[in-house]
Structures are given as structure tokens and as C-alpha cells.
Amino acid sequence: MDQSGTDRENHPYVGMWVTKDGYIRHELLPDGRYDEARGSRKSAYQGRYCIEGDHIEYLDDTGFTADGDFRDGILYHAGMILYREE
Description:
Pfam families: Atu4866. This protein is mainly β and about 90 residues long. The protein has one domain: Uncharacterised protein family Atu4866 (Lipocalin, Beta Barrel), CATH 2.40.128.290. It has no helices and eight strands. The chain has strands spanning about 15-20, 25-30, 35-40, 40-50, 55-60, 65-70, 75, 80-85. Strands 1-2-3-4-5-6-7-8 form an eight-stranded antiparallel barrel. A hairpin with a 4-residue loop joins strand 1 and strand 2. The radius of gyration is 12 Å and the shape is globular.
């Protein structure tokens, strides 16, 4: 469950988010973990995430933190724009 008590398995933001060129891929897993691939480098970054409303907070396994916002079906994160992979 996320902080709002929502079941992550069915959360609308769980799944794959990809930059337009496909270079960066964020997979938001139902267990509260994420896996980010960059180019051919799979699992370049991994860690935990928490979603509250339309805001996401990331905590990388190395201790790095970042955040982002979902607006109109798009994820804006650290200067990147990611789209839901169909």
C-alpha cells in the first residue's frame, strides 16, 4: 500500500514509463520498488518509491533521492518527461 492506503497492485501509476526516445525506462513495480534502465544498461538504478496523490518520491538504493509529478498522464521527473508504455 502507498501512504494513502491505496493498493499498489491496482494503482494507475504502476507500470512502465519511458522517455520519448526510449532511452530511459522507469518500471514502477507493485511492491513499491522501481527499476530504471538507461540505454542498454538494465537496472542502472533501483530503489523504492512512494506515491502520494500525483507526486512520487524516489529513494535509490545508494541513498540518492529524487521526485516527480504525474500530470495529464505524463511523468515529469528530474527534467525528464516519461510516457506510459502501452
